[in-house]
Specification:
297 residues, alpha/beta, 10 helices
């Protein structure tokens, strides 16, 4: 386990780290053709997101940031979107994988998952658990029947929840001990309010499950959009690294959502700076190798 503040390089890691930064894979971004009815979660406060974000723009921002590959993640709960993202990925060398959506509670979930797994570059499934009004949605029997089919088709599951639901998520994960899970946005703790507990304790408990990975993503949109700093985020980086270690952490941008709080390059540089005290090999895990392993890219 890693202890202490990893934002401050130690003598050992400063001496062993290489002068150049490892190549990067962005394990979490979105693409969409905007339609107000399809994206009700894009509020007035996020008005700048109320437009199309397509492959050409993604290519430009990732090229500017020196990102070598990406994973596109669903932004609406529609199997049609899963097919669309897969079609974009099939024509792109940049998109290495897709996390789509399928109706896991549907009696016909198996047929949907079989179809999803056959689509080019589809690597996983995500359901927007954070928006379900039922705090215990992840423990529903029908949801678990669907989730229990994912491994049959070689599909991972992305966990999108707020920190307060981590106790239920731990119980959910324990029902599927051989399924690969990837936790999005470090479980969205109360960064704006500078809340650390009980998120820290629950995250540490979840991280004891070796089949769970975690994304360093979605943090600046949980902070004050126009007043966050690396110092403000320090404790959250520390907690996540101590819980998961570099081997099960991966970088994600959450582009274009992150643009309400900062630029793509600024977020990547924040992460690179935060992990600069680690060895070159540990940085390489977080910036790319973990995503390759977890998603089978």
């Amino acid at each position: 386990m890693y202890a202490g503040n990893f934002l401050r390089p130690t003598r050992r890691t400063m001496a062993s780290a290489k002068p150049t930064s490892p190549p990067c894979i962005d394990a979490h971004h979105h693409l969409w053709r905007y339609d107000a009815a399809q994206y009700p979660w894009i509020s007035e406060a996020m008005a700048e997101l109320r437009r199309d974000f397509l492959l050409s723009e993604l290519s430009a921002v990732t090229r500017a940031a020196g990102v070598a590959g990406t994973v596109a993640v669903q932004a609406r709960q529609s199997f049609e979107e899963t097919e669309w993202l897969s079609s974009l990925a099939s024509r792109s060398d940049l998109i290495l994988g897709v996390v789509g959506w399928a109706p896991l509670i549907d009696p016909g979930a198996e047929a949907y998952l079989e179809k999803a797994a056959a689509l080019p570059k589809v690597k996983g499934i995500r359901h927007v658990l954070q928006d379900e009004p039922d705090d215990f949605y992840a423990l529903r029997e029908d949801f678990n029947r669907g989730a229990g089919l994912l491994r049959k088709f070689g599909l991972r599951y992305d966990l999108l929840v707020f920190a307060r639901r981590l106790p239920q998520i731990i119980r959910f994960v324990d029902r599927h001990p051989r399924q690969i899970f990837i936790l999005d946005h470090i479980a969205k703790p109360g960064i704006r309010e500078r809340i650390v507990s009980p998120w820290r304790e629950h995250l540490a408990e979840l991280a004891k499950r070796e089949n769970v990975y975690c994304k360093l993503s979605g943090m600046i949109t949980e902070a004050h959009w126009h007043a966050w700093s690396a110092e403000h985020l320090r404790i959250y980086f520390d907690v996540v690294l101590e819980a998961f270690g570099p081997r099960r952490l991966m970088f994600g941008s959450d582009w274009p959502v992150l643009t309400v709080a900062g630029s793509y390059v600024r977020w990547l540089e924040t992460v690179r700076s935060a992990i600069s005290g680690l060895s070159f090999a540990e940085q390489a895990r977080i910036l790319g190798e973990t995503a390759v392993e977890a998603y089978g890219l």
